[in-house]
Amino acid sequence: EVQLVESGGGLVQPGGSLRLSCAASGFTVRNYDMSWVRQAPGKGLEWVSSIYSNGFTKYEDSVKGRFTISKDNAKNTLNLQMNSLKPDDTAVYYCRVGPTRGQGIQVTVSS
Q1: Mean per-residue pLDDT for 16-31?
Q2: Phi, psi dihedrals of residue 81, rounded to the nearest 5°
Q3: Is 100 in contact with 5 (CB distance < 8 Å)?
Q4: CA 31, CA 37: separation in Å to the nearest integer?
Q5: Phi/psi of residue 62, each to 5°?
Q6: Is the dihedral of CA 19, 52, 62, 44 positive or negative?
Q7: pLDDT of 34-78, one tens digit each?
Q8: Comparing C-alpha atoms, which of 40, 24, 10 is closest to residue 96?
Q9: Three-state SS across the chain?
């Protein structure tokens, strides 16, 4: 059974950093395309970033240069390093593989 569990969220001031992790079980992250998506209050689900099985990465324009997606194959996790955070980054963040999402983790950027 595929399971994804996010961690690392919380409250941070504008300009700060957070690192999200997604622990995967039931499959090997190295072999799959994976993504981070987010949902801000009152809004729909928004794609943030993807990393493909060949290592190629893509980012939504508003997070380019600030967020970095990566895989830790030894730990079988997906990570998202988020720097220079802005209030508009406030959302519940989910990791995703195929049709499966984790339970989500809250990120709040506020002074």
Answers
A1: 97
A2: -85, 120
A3: no
A4: 19
A5: -70, -15
A6: negative
A7: 999 999 999 999 999 999 999 999 999 999 999 999 999 999 999
A8: 24
A9: CCEEEEECCEEECCCCCEEEEEEEECCCHHHCCEEEEEECCCCCEEEEEEECCCCCEEECHHHCCCEEEEEECCCCEEEEEECCCCHHHCEEEEEEECCEECCCEEEEECC
Q: What distance in Å separates the CA atoms of residue 48 and residue 32, rounded to the nearest whole number?
A: 17
Q: Is the dihedral of CA 91, 45, 8, 1 positive or negative?
A: positive
Asked whether the beta carbons of 21 and 64 are under 8 A apart, the reply is: no
Amino acid residing at 27: F
β-bridge partners, 79? 21, 70
